[in-house]
Structure formats: C-alpha cells, structure tokens
Amino acid sequence: MSVTPSADNPEDSQAVAAVLDDLAVLAIRRLSTQSDLSLTATMTLSHLDRYGPERLSVLAARQSVTQPSMTQLVQRLEREGLVRRTADDLDGRAVRVSVTDAGRALLAERRRRRRERLAEMLGTLSPGELRELTRVAGEFLPLLRRLLESTADE
C-alpha cells in the first residue's frame, strides 16, 4: 500500500518511510534484470568498485552475510573473473578482494541497461510531468543521499 506524506505534517516519518520503501521495491523490481548475479553479488562488486579493495570480513559485514557465505561468493566471482583475491599487506593471513576490469565492465553494462530502461519509462511522461519530476528529483536526491550516507556507517 502506498502512503503519501502530507506537506502539513512534515514530521510524519512513518509516511515518508513507507514512500521510500515503495520506491526501493519498485526500483528493484522494474530495473533489475534477470542475470546470474544475485543482489548480494552485485552489491559486493559495486562496493569494491566504489571503495576499493576490502578484507573478506569487511565485505561480509557490509552485506550482512556470514564470512563463510562471503567466502563462497568471492570464490564464485573470482572463478568468473570479476574479482581478484590477494594477501593483505598488513596481515598475511587475511585476504583482500578487489574488482577486476571485467567486474567493472559488467557493472558499467548493468548501469547502462538500467539507465536505458529508465529513459524509456521517462519517455512515456508528458513534457510537464517530466519537468516536474526533474524538479522534485533535484531536491530529493541530495536529501536521500545525505540520509543514506549518514546511516551507512552504523
């Protein structure tokens, strides 16, 4: 069920939370493609691409999975040539994982296809609707980024 927050009640965080939840679910459903990569695999690759090499334990914690599960995922991604594992310079017992050029290319292609689908959807809007959505998105995105980045370290 979709809930629209009232401009008269800006403290209605439950209504805003419901709208953001709907947005997330719709985006995942409409923009995800059927592929051999799970959401966790895609998010792991994206994290490595954005933040650089990480220890397996950090990746597991970031994705909220067990270390053995992350080890299996990284082994599969390594077999597919999407990541590389190396010994940690500071602790030879630990493993650091980095994304390969093939992994970056896969992420770029997925991003391109997502944006292409979005452009097709936006093409169904009237010019006025597109202007309004552009205006709202310009205000909404910085707030959402700040909100999500402030909670990412928790």
What can you tell me about this protein's structure?
With 154 residues, this protein is mainly α. It is 65% helix and 8% strand. The chain has six helices and three strands, in the order H-H-E-H-H-E-E-H-H. Helix 3 packs across helix 4 (67-79). The longest helix has 25 residues, at 127-151.
Number of strands: 3
What composes the largest sheet? 3 strands, antiparallel
Q: Which structural class best describes the helix and strand composition?
A: mainly alpha
Give, in order, the helices and strands.
HHEHHEEHH
Distance between the termini: 29 Å
Number of helical stretches of at least 4 residues: 6
* Uncertain stretches: none
Strand content: 5-15%
Mean pLDDT: 85
The helicity comes to 55-70%
Radius of gyration: 19 Å
Strand order of the largest sheet: 1-3-2
What labels describe this entry?
154 residues, mainly alpha, 3-stranded antiparallel beta sheet, 6 helices
What is the structure about, briefly put?
This protein is mainly alpha-helical and 154 residues long. 65% of the residues lie in helices and 8% in strands.
Explain the layout of strands and helices.
Blueprint: H1 13-31, H2 39-51, E1 54-55, H3 56-63, H4 67-79, E2 83-87, E3 95-99, H5 101-122, H6 127-151
Antiparallel strand pairs: 1-3, 2-3
Helix pairs in contact: 3-4
